[in-house]
Amino acid sequence: MAEKANHPKGTARILPLQMEDLKDKGYTKSALHEAAYTWGQGTFFPNNLIKVMAHCPKLAQTEIIYANSFLFDEEVWLNGVQQAGFVNRCLREMVISCISLINRCRYSVTHHSLIGYLEFQKAGRSRQEYIDKYLHLHEFDSSAYKKNYTLLELALFEYAKKICEDPHTVSDKEFEKLQRLFAAYNRKQSKKIISKQNEQLVKSQIVEITWLVCHFCLLNRWFTVLHVEDEGKKDELDFLKIYEETVPEEIIRRNNLLLGDDF
Questions:
Q1: Is residue 12 part of a domain?
Q2: Predicted local distance difference test score (pLDDT) of residue 147
Q3: What CATH number should be reported for the domain holding residue 233?
Q4: DSSP of 11-57, one letter per residue?
Q5: How large is the average pLDDT for residues 242-257?
């Protein structure tokens, strides 16, 4: 029998706004629709993230383009200059899930378990690789953690963990190591990259991934304190049904054990 997601015993502290509840039927309604299509990756997915943000209309209106620039955008170029997407999507998703597991944030853990799985599929990576990569993201002291990740992935997860817990603990030595590993990764991806290009790319990658970590530290806390619920049967699109039907059982079980009945 397939593993079912746990449901928190509590209820949302701030109820998501529905379209008919909006005082601003223009900009905020447009933002809700844009978020539903953008974050649904082509499927209309009215989500509780944007619906709770809609209590502060300007926050909802500005979140989508802002968040996409370091969360979901692939490589974006303008007039020959790269604007976003400096770190590949699968790696970004693993970092997001690592942070969310550390912070035990239900909404981020469930949603990015699904998004990460879909990104692995899109990249042609196997279901087993996804399970191996996602199952041990937060187990920093386990043998499985040490053997399932590349040196860059390990350095990024340790970097993210320190930012979550106390950013003062990130040493110059660790930062320089992360720079070297990104530079080596970039050379492996493109044999033609020259040193000056690589140096600038590494700076962009570290700025982007650091912002991603800090944003999710904020977002995890926001979801948890407000008790933002996963979308279920009562909503326009039943996220929990898709999550249970799509995400491998091993990951759902791990999420259940870690989250319990908490948000």
A1: no
A2: 86
A3: 1.20.1290.10
A4: --SSPPPPGGG-S-TTHHHHHHHHHHHHHTTTS----HHHHHHTTSH
A5: 96
